[in-house]
chitinase
Amino acid sequence: MRRKHPLRAALAAALTAATALGFAGTGTGTAAAATPLPAQVFAPYFESWTGQSPAAMSAESGAKHLTMAFIQTAAKGSCTPLWNGSTSMPISPATFGDDIKTLQARGGDAIPSFGGYTADTTGTEIADSCTDVQQIAAAYQKVVTTYDISRLDMDIEVDALDNTAGIDRRNKAIKLVQDWAAANNRKLEISYTLPTTTRGPAANGVALLKNAVQNGARVDVVNLMTFDYYDNAAHDMARDTETAAQGLHDQLARLYPDKSDAQLWSMIGVTEMPGVDDFGPAETFTLANARQVYDWAEAKKINTLSFWALQRDNGSCPGGPAADNCSGIEQQTWDFTRIFAPFTSGSSTPQNDFSVTAAPAAGSVTAGGTATTTVRTAVTAGAAQKVDLKVSGVPAGVTAALSPDSVTAGGSATLTLTTTAATPSGTHRITVTGTGPSGSHTAAYALTVTGGSGGQCTAAPWATGTVYTAGQQVAHRGHTWKAKWWTTGEEPGTTGEWGVWQDLGSC
């Protein structure tokens, strides 16, 4: 999303995960769970650099939930999160703390948003700025615990969308903070706000989501910026929102093949720009468009409805260009908010749900030895439920035992893996599945065995300079791999689930 004020840059002292926040897997931090957001939520953006009170503007407009923009660093290279990159606006109760408490007391909440156009083009988006994954995760944790919120938004666009190193760091940090939240029985959602074409996110946006899946980072909502197409075409902005979201739905279906159609739609959000957007009058979102988008969003049961920004929801500059403080069209103050506000399903009871994680998520053992890990469950919505645990993917020569094999969500079990001399060497992916009345969730554990004598690979070893075609098999690091298409130089095990090599298992 865009903002037009100059960046107030001053380098602040770097945030350290161990001393400032007690992060790095210690399980410290506030354990009390924040109130989850409704299944459907209207959360317009609030421009936090204006000096206005979000609580006061929420009360005046009727928007109970606000997406607060933006958190970034003061300068490239810093790991310290600040509101708007300003050292005068640290992440602390003194900055917006009372406002956010007021929103929560009224039944609403804030969604702090990292990034934004300015940060994404100046290298001050925290995962672009900071190269330490632990400190990035610690920054996320600090925001969560300081304001006791249940969702963080990542607004990633322009330069940041092509920064593959930053994307990978961000998703690794998201996975760390999600594991921390699960260990502390916290509900924590992550949304990604991304630019879009009229047919869904471009290739770099899809690549970002693929990287999240590869890193085990759960993306709860993908929020499309359904404006600023910059294609010099005529636009029906409501219809384009629908086609963009449909394209996203179809892309998510490929990324998450086990999700139902309803679950995929419940991962989608859209953000409009009331009136004239940054491109100009050719991309004007009208009140009639807003009513059409509202009806469509209700029918599809998408997760989030938003617009940029609450300060623009007035008609003080009709006929003018895009501005941060007015819509550029004739309207009454809060017209767009009044159309979208009923979308929030705040009175509904959240469906019971839970999570499953393994800590540690990997271990190494000499054949004949034993490895253990703790399988943790947590309540992520509603009330605790009984969760039955099962293990799959155990290779020959390994015995798996869970104690206990059934817990109440919030409880833990110990997974013991006992190997023998005949266990195949290599890294074996073992899955723990938790099943309850609301459905199933899984956790992965990577067991590396050395010195084993069993299951020798029969396929030829992979060679970096050899050309492989579809169907050919190779052996690499204790696994057999099959090429899905022509390839050379791509190492098996590094191309991901959607890459050229299909893992056929241990050998």
